[in-house]
UniProtKB/TrEMBL annotation:
This is Permease. Keywords: Cell membrane, Membrane, Transmembrane, Transmembrane helix. Signal peptide: none annotated. It is found in: Cell membrane. It is a multi-pass membrane protein. Coiled coil: none annotated. The chain crosses the membrane at residues 12-36, 87-112, 119-140, 199-222, 234-253, 259-284, 296-318, 338-361. Its main location: membrane. The keyword NAD does not apply. Pfam families: ArsP_1. It comes from Acidisoma cellulosilyticum.
Length: 393
């Protein structure tokens, strides 16, 4: 009993420590994301993404990188693009970009795991999109795509992910307008509403696994000590499967990734785990309800193959460059260390930024359709709920 209480205390301290280490960076990332969503017009996005060409794929990638990092929200936006006429590859490229190339994810990786993982995630995100484009081109299921585009969804309604009507003027002029900041504050609050459960659950799962699962279990599962020719491919194949079963959100799984890395999982295996936020079981179910089960199976298969290949390429490249970071077997213990340092002051500063955004959003209720899906649980449970223009956030 005493042992259980000690482990529970360890898990709680680990959870609090991880939240403390990355709290400010999450606020910073969401603030930048909210401003980009407000300043970058989505008008004409569908027209611009109507082909599977390089230009359209690059545009979709940039749009994804500028959007929210929530995999459920990204799936809803991608679905809207696709159903309104965007080609398949740009629609899926948007998904990969919005969950692998976003600022807040990079900052959290930098803080918890080092610059190599941040760079690996970002370069890996681009590699993912290139591999995806090639695989889809080689296996393009024309009939499935046509069926998926007109697949009858529950309720038969579509979300509208359009933001503010396009305001005239330069970025600097827009930044000088109160409306811009009001809209950004709503985007900030809605992103948090969609994501907070995932993020908290991610920290809780990482804390519990970090405290209760001995390193030996991860080492056995990921064949630590085996010949690299066996371990690296095995880890790349297994990483996404572990993520599928334990995964929460694209940011929520970083703490567990840090623990896996400290336990001896290969660099590529950890990256494969991080990449796999788009094939978790609840999201595969969203694809099934949105596009039909055949298209969902196709997307799941192509995504899994893409993630494994990208992880192997990144592992080889980073080993070749000598960029594999040193392991920190005490990653979990380091997260429990508190002191008055830059983290302390940054948490206070960005805590105030978050409070200011919430107050601004509350004082100025929106009088237009929200730009995101209408809440995280809605994105999970009802991929096609109507959004009414008179809803206030």
């Amino acid at each position: 009993m005493e042992m259980l209480l000690t482990d529970l205390e360890h898990a709680v301290m680990l959870i609090i420590g991880m939240v403390w280490q990355v709290g400010w960076s999450l606020v910073l990332g969401f603030a930048i994301s909210a401003l980009l969503q407000t300043l970058v017009s989505k008008q004409g996005m569908q027209k611009a993404l109507g082909r599977n060409g390089p230009k359209e794929i690059i545009l979709a990638t940039l749009a994804g990188a500028a959007s929210s990092s929530c995999s459920y929200a990204s799936a809803a936006v991608s679905r809207t693009l696709f159903k309104r006429g965007a080609a398949l590859v740009p629609s899926l490229a948007f998904l990969f970009a919005s969950t692998n190339l976003v600022i807040e994810l990079g900052v959290v990786l930098l803080l918890l795991m080092g610059w190599q993982f941040m760079v690996g995630e970002w370069i890996g995100g681009v590699v993912l999109i290139i591999i995806l484009a090639v695989l889809v081109k080689l296996t393009y299921p024309k009939k499935l795509v046509e069926e998926a585009r007109t697949f009858p969804e529950a309720g038969g309604h579509n979300h509208d992910h359009g933001g503010m009507a396009e305001a005239p003027g330069s970025v600097w002029q827009k930044l000088g307008r109160r409306d811009t900041w009001v809209h950004a504050s709503h985007s900030f609050v809605m992103d948090w509403q969609m994501l907070w459960k995932d993020i908290v659950l991610g920290f809780v799962i990482a804390g519990v696994l970090g405290a209760f699962v001995p390193d030996g279990v991860w080492q056995f599962l990921f064949v630590k000590g085996a010949n690299p020719w066996i371990q690296v491919p095995a880890n790349a194949l297994l990483g996404p499967i572990v993520a599928m079963l334990s995964f929460v959100c694209s940011i929520g799984n970083v703490p567990l990734a840090a623990i896996l890395w400290g336990s001896g999982v290969s660099f590529g295996g950890v990256l494969a785990f991080l990449f796999a936020d788009l094939i978790v079981l609840p999201l595969l179910d969203v694809y099934r309800r949105t596009y039909g089960w055949k298209m969902a199976a196709y997307i799941g298969g192509v995504f899994y193959a893409t993630m494994v290949l990208a992880a192997l390429i990144m592992d080889l490249a980073f080993n070749g460059l000598g960029w594999i970071p040193a392991r920190n077997p005490h990653a979990a213990a380091a997260m429990e260390h508190f002191s008055v340092n830059y983290t302390f002051f940054l948490n206070i500063l960005f805590g105030l930024v978050a409070v200011a955004a919430v107050i601004l959003a509350k004082r100025n209720p929106m009088r237009m359709a929200p730009r995101h899906c209408c809440g995280h649980s809605a994105a999970k449970a009802k991929a096609a709920e109507p959004v009414h223009a008179h809803h206030h956030h």
